[in-house]
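Tokens in:
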């Protein structure tokens, strides 16, 4: 069960910051972020199923996945891992992709950044883990930065749903 959740943005830096506390040990929360057998059960928007095409957990490695809606519509995405410090931190570039893993623009906007750099940290206190995600445009134009900031509310809702799924999954395993 979730103890607390906070969402806020840092408009000065243009980063989305979301923190959530889970009633699970840090090693377990880190594990479900780094293994395909777990990611497929909770990653992504509510209502979507996730197919893991590839997971290579190392700097330079990728997590390539397909998000499939109930109507069959597919969107592909990927992480390119930059840094992994088990069980404390994961740094990755997140983007939309094609089926081969090439970075592409998202289907909803030509102004959304091609890549978003995310830093996910895991801290444990009294058997609970606080996960903090900080994300912002990477190698983006001024217009892409502005568009990204304009999507904070939508992204907070999306990550809120994803973290709800993570919370439910952690309670089951």
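Residues out:
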């Amino acid at each position: 069960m979730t103890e607390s959740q906070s969402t806020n943005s840092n408009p000065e830096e243009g980063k989305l910051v979301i923190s959530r506390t889970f009633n699970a040990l840090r090693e377990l929360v880190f594990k479900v972020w780094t293994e395909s057998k777990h990611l497929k059960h909770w990653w992504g928007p509510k209502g979507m199923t996730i197919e893991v095409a590839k997971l290579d957990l190392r700097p330079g490695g990728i997590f390539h996945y397909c998000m499939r809606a109930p109507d069959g519509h597919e969107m592909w995405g990927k992480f390119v891992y930059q840094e992994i410090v088990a069980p404390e931190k994961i740094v990755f570039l997140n983007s939309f992709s094609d089926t081969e893993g090439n970075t592409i623009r998202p289907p909803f906007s030509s102004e959304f950044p091609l890549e978003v750099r995310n830093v996910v940290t895991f801290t444990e206190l009294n058997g609970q883990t606080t996960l903090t995600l900080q994300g912002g445009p990477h190698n983006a134009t001024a217009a892409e930065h502005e568009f990204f900031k304009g999507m904070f509310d939508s992204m907070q809702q999306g990550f809120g749903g994803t973290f709800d799924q993570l919370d439910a999954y952690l309670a089951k395993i």
